[in-house]
Design a protein that fits this description.
It is elongated, with a radius of gyration of 22 Å. The protein is mainly α. The protein contains seven helices and no strands. About 75% of the residues lie in helices and about 0% in strands.
Length: about 180
């Protein structure tokens, strides 16, 4: 780039599109409430995880005798059971967050903390699963654990991506910005 092009670039002022400007303003405003939004999201993740533990036979806390709804997936094999349980366990926190948080807050979480707030809880629970803490179940092989982990991460990421896209699409259609 030569000097003339640089000066033209500096002098020429283009205004950003209204949608981009509004999204940036919304992002900045939500950043001022970052701590409360993150804590709320994590709290909802924990509530959802506890809910799924209450119906999950894997941890011995299920309210239903046997495998309950997971019995259908158990009949399909260990991989199907692991995929169902993993996606149910971590996705339940996301669903609870959908119910308790505003769309703009979830959009902000997904935009800012996609990896840390979605994948770190999955990796924490994955580490516990891989260590097989206190479970000692015969069906729990490495394949079972990795299927559980992969399904949990993919289900959470998919749900958050869909929710974030739905919010931003609605944001684009809103002409009040």
């Amino acid at each position: 780039m030569n000097r003339k092009e640089l000066l033209d670039f500096i002098i020429h002022r283009e205004t950003p599109p209204a949608v981009l400007k509004a999204a940036t303003h919304k992002d900045i405003l939500l950043s001022f409430r970052a701590r409360s939004i993150i804590l709320k999201f994590l709290l909802f993740q924990i509530i959802g995880a506890l809910f799924s533990l209450s119906v999950c036979p894997q941890f011995g806390l299920g309210l239903v005798q046997g495998h309950g709804l997971a019995h259908i997936f158990r009949l399909m094999g260990d991989a199907a059971c692991a995929a169902f349980c993993g996606s149910l366990f971590l996705s339940s926190g996301v669903v609870v967050a959908f119910l308790g948080m505003k769309g703009e807050e979830l959009w902000w979480v997904w935009r800012r903390f996609k990896y840390s707030l979605i994948f770190l809880p999955a990796l924490l629970w994955s580490a516990l699963m891989l260590l097989n803490v206190g479970l000692g179940l015969p069906a729990e092989t490495m394949k079972f654990h990795f299927t559980w982990i992969a399904a949990a991460i993919m289900a959470q990421a998919l749900l958050m991506q869909i929710r974030s896209f739905a919010y931003f699409s609605g944001f684009l259609q809103n002409k009040s910005y």
